[in-house]
Amino acid sequence: MSVSRRTLLTTAAGAAVAASTSTPAFAATPEVSDQATVTRTLRQAADYAVAKLRAVAPGVTAFPVGTKFEKWTYSQNGDWVGGFWPGQLWLAWLHSGEEQFKTLALASAEKLAPRQNDTGTHDLGFLFYPSWVTAWRLTGEEKWRAGAIQAASSLIKRYNPAGRFIRAWGALTDPNNAGRVIMDTMMNLDLLAFASAQTGDPKYLDIAVAHAKTAQRNFPRPDGSTPHVFDFDPVTGAPIGPNTVQGYSPTSCWSRGQAWGVYGFTTIHRRTGDPEFLATARRLADYALSRLTADHVPVWDYLAPQAPDDVKDASAGVIMACGLLDLAELTHRPQYRESALRILTAVSRTCMTTKSARAEASVARCTRNRPAEDGVEVSLPYADYYLLEGILRVLDRRGVDRAIDLSSV
Hints:
Blueprint: H1 30-33, H2 35-56, E1 63-68, E2 71-75, H3 84-96, H4 99-110, H5 124-139, H6 142-155, E3 159-160, E4 165-166, E5 180-182, H7 189-199, H8 203-218, E6 229-232, E7 239-243, H9 255-272, H10 275-291, H11 314-331, H12 334-350, H13 381-395, H14 397-404
Antiparallel strand pairs: 1-2, 3-4, 5-6, 6-7
Helix pairs in contact: 2-3, 2-12, 2-13, 3-4, 3-5, 3-13, 4-5, 5-6, 5-7, 6-7, 7-8, 9-10, 9-11, 10-11, 11-12, 11-13, 12-13, 13-14
């Protein structure tokens, strides 16, 4: 994600309440065994999220990036999160059938058009997959497909062939951060898979696979935990070592980065069939699940000194839940689905904004950048997006597949 949004975002403090007793990764719970209760809870959460969008979205003219005192703050160009707002609106349209959401999604996605030529960020997948790829899949209109492919062409300009990685941050001419790789980029690779599938040109997917293999070699530790950042010499491509920006330390495990890894490695496996990517996703998932507390909402960093009694990041939970649902299908291990349902149910019950008449978002208890004291226990647009995606994967998998392509090779 971008490191250039400090001026837009203001910290909102909140008190964290976390259970301190670790629970086994796949412990059975009465909530998950009662499928009717789970379905009802998830449907209520989705209905609430859609109702919130129905009330708030008509007045939104830019891109929400996070909340300050429960109200959205905005970026005009989308920062790194711009795709999640039209993405939410598409999911709301699928869930409700209300045409206003489709109209608003198209208008919001259109505002991202200048970014398809942006070579200064790795986040073009976040920007264009839930917005433009989804727009093309749901409308068939060619401009959305063409724009997404152009965004993929911009993204591959950030590829470093010496190190076989996609650079995370900084302009291509800026020597700072030139060898910096972050776990988040795993989630931007599916835009490249899309471009290869649509054009027949393997170069996009080849770069995605090369990056994923580099991340696979360097990020996971023996126990399955990961750092947020890994640095390389940008000239020779030689690995330098782990680091962090949003985690507690280079040796800790930032929970949202771990979630990006679970989802991202599972997705690149779906696009390639490479069993090593699936094995890596499982290692990361098993570690994260072993660190969840009894409330099933991730702490912001699994290895921070105050963990597990520290502030939460519900966004890490809902992102991981989406990846776990894929893992369950691909590995034929129902315990991953059960874990996903526990997380989605827990967030739906304990992290929603239902008790606030003021809140403009759906999901609370998210943490953006704890070390920078930037957005601690706030709402974030990707939490709202992935909560809806996760719930609809359970309630309406066919609809979600229409939007984002859940198929495997």
